[in-house]
Each structure stands twice: as structure tokens, then as C-alpha cells.
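Lab notes, practical 5.
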Amino acid sequence: MHAMQYGLTLPADYDMGVIRGRVARVGHLLDDWDGLGFKVYLLRERGVHGSPVNQYAPFYLWNTVEGMNRFLWGGAFQRLVDDFGRPEVVRWTGLAYEEGGGAGSPAAVAVRRRQRIPEGGELTAIMEEAVDETRRLAGEDGAVLAAAAVDPHRWELVHFSLWEHDAPKAEGDVFQVLHVSAPGRDALPRGRQW
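Output from the prediction step:
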């Protein structure tokens, strides 16, 4: 399992209806993408859920590297690059994935928390804590799913969760969910990834 995200931070006066319209037009194009666990089309609006910025920042969990690479190099990602410029794409290696009690419900919001892994920490214990946090989040009322992943280049953890209501029980940046493409969600491996 591989996690991926890029963010387009937009001007404070940007009409976020443009992003909503774009997702309404093209969001379905990944609904059957081979190798994709899920893509969540995410939006932050300045002043909503405490966001300091306007941002479009889709989050992906991939079942296969081939599916991810076909998305990035096969033309689909190029449309976004042509319209907005080439964003930095962040990738993490999967640590854990769990379905929540609200797994059959549509998601209203997502929460993403990125954190640095401290120097000198015992890596096994830190990764086990991330797995435990994934289980805890998935067990909270209203949780649709939860995942954790790590970037060993920057030594960064990411915790990601989807919620069926606007009051998530997770800390981090809160995003509005515009659309979910989930062709391979059922194939995502559950639990600890090592």
C-alpha cells in the first residue's frame, strides 16, 4: 500500500466553486482506475474548519505502484499540471489501514495529520504507535476509515481518516470531501503492513 498527496494552495480570493466544478466534471474518471485503492478529492477553504488557506489536495491510497505510475506518467496527472502547474507530490509507504464503523457511509470530511519522527526514537515502537492510532481512529464513532503511512526519506508520519460527519474525532488539517473514487478499496490490506 502506498499513500500519495499533492496540494494546490490557491489565492485567498480564489473562487473555490471552480474546484468544485472541476471535481464534478472529472472526479468519476478514476472510479475504475486499476491499482487505485481510493482517491479522496479534498478541499480546504480559508476560514472553514480553521483552515488558513484555500487548497485543493487529493489524497490517494494505491494498491499497486503500476497504477500510481500510470496515473502520474500516463497522462491523467498531466491535465492538472497543464491547468495549475506541477505540484510537489508527496509519497509515503503504508503502515496500517482499517475500515471504520461508518465504512458504508459517505464521507463528509477528512483529517490529515503530518508529524516528524523524532531523532533517537526507537523506530519499531514509533511505527507500532502509528498502527495503534490507526486502530483507535477507525474505532471512533463516525469513522469511515483510517490509515497511517511513513516517508523514511523525510522521516515523517501521516495519519489520514475519513468521517461521516463534520465533527471528526481526530486532530489535524480538516478537509471537505468532494468525491471519493474507490475502485480497489476492498483490496486494500487491513491492519499492520509489515
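Observations recorded by the TA: Helices lie at 17-26, 65-73, 76-84, 123-139. Residues 105 and 185 are 14 Å apart (CA to CA).
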